[in-house]
Design a protein that fits this description.
Rossmann fold
Length: about 375
């Protein structure tokens, strides 16, 4: 087994990369016992105070329990913890949970660490200067990956990772231009990138030649422009008319751009409607973590729409969408659902008009700006 520290904390918005780092760590410390009784996993998706306190207590108890007689080593994995300190202006955790987290960190860090025990914590976000993180610094292996703040940075990071991911899938790109075309087409989400690389590998079959730009255009699914589209949904959620106009300007040169934009925003409004209701009823947290108290029939309906815990969105993307829905709820507490339904209706109507008649870019922009109504203060 490779020499690793007995405590590891891996943090990042890209859940694929965090999970890959976590599994590599577990293989190193557990060896051939990986995925056996030597690994005890706890879900960190608790959404209310009592569940979070219970989760902390359970993980601490696991850490303090020695391995089974049949296992020479044991690892406790606290996975996708959605309530670690983040330092945001909005309090995501209660004072009781915060105190319990700090007590947990102190207890683990100051304990006499058995040679056969390992603790792994993975999370989407963690404030490096928090007392929780500082307590672990002397004894833990900590890796916190900062999210790219701009679309261009996200693309650069995705391009930098692409060669190693492609090599793992058994393929390579013919030219840097082919690799860049691939990222432009499939986007920057690592899980999506790997899925599309595996698709290319299957398509090549026994052919071992490098992937060309024409191969990318023929085979890879088009999901590119995701970062800019996310910016558009952010602008709509914030009611930022100037930002909506600026983003639409980057699309408006394409006479066919109106339809995909309308389709995207109609789908986004539909998601906001569903997640706003889930937020209001406490079934989901702003971080994207699902509660365990969702009624079974509601859970079945959400999963049937691919919008529940078994849906396509990863925790980061789900948290992003919930955060956008929350903006409508905060801005218009009494009428947010009416506003969301009106926005979806506008986009459905725009899509129908675009499929039956031609509209110029300025007319489409007017429709988009109606999603950000002027809010006048009372005299």
């Amino acid at each position: 087994m490779a020499e690793r520290r007995h405590i590891a904390i891996f943090v990042g918005d890209d859940d694929y990369l965090v999970e890959a780092a976590a599994k590599a760590y577990l293989r190193d410390v557990l060896g051939d016992k990986y995925e056996s009784t030597a690994l005890e996993t706890f879900d960190g998706g608790a959404t209310n105070e009592s569940e979070r306190l219970r989760s902390i207590s359970n993980v601490l108890a696991s850490w303090q329990t020695p391995p089974f007689f049949t296992d020479p080593v044991k690892a406790t994995w606290w996975r996708r913890v959605g309530f670690l300190p983040t330092g945001g202006a909005k309090k995501d955790i209660s004072e009781s949970v915060k105190a319990a987290l700090e007590a947990f960190a102190e207890a683990v860090a100051k304990s006499s660490i058995p040679s056969e025990q390992y603790l792994l914590i993975t999370a989407p976000r963690l404030l490096a200067s928090s007392r929780f993180c500082k307590a672990f610094e002397p004894v833990a292996e900590i890796a916190i990956s900062a999210a790219a703040s701009r679309p261009a940075q996200a693309k650069q990071a995705a391009l930098a990772r692409l060669p190693s991911l492609a090599k793992t899938c058994g393929i390579e790109f013919e030219t840097p231009g082919a690799a860049a075309a691939f990222i432009e087409r499939v986007g920057v989400d690592t899980r999506t990138i790997v899925s599309e690389l595996e698709k290319l590998r299957t398509w090549l079959g026994a052919d071992a030649r490098p992937i060309s730009a024409s191969d990318v255009a023929e085979v890879a699914s088009f999901t590119g422009g995701e970062s800019e589209i996310w910016e558009l949904s952010d602008a709509v959620a914030r009611g930022d008319a100037k930002k909506i106009s600026a983003i639409w300007a980057s699309y408006s040169a394409d006479p066919q751009a109106g339809i995909p934009v309308a389709v995207f925003l109609e789908k986004t409004f539909r998601e906001w409607i569903v997640y706003a209701e889930c937020l209001a009823k406490g079934w989901i947290a702003d971080s994207g973590a699902w509660a365990k108290t969702i009624p079974p029939d509601v859970l079945d309906s959400l999963n049937a729409m691919e919008m529940g815990p078994n849906g396509k969105k990863n925790t980061w993307a789900l948290g992003k969408t919930c955060g956008q829905a929350r903006l409508f709820m905060q801005r218009n507490p009494q009428g947010y659902m009416r506003e969301l339904r009106a926005g979806r209706y506008r986009m459905l109507n725009l899509r129908e008009r675009l499929t039956s008649a031609r509209m110029d870019a300025s007319a489409i922009e007017i429709e988009l700006l109606r999603l950000a109504p002027v809010r006048r203060s009372r005299a």
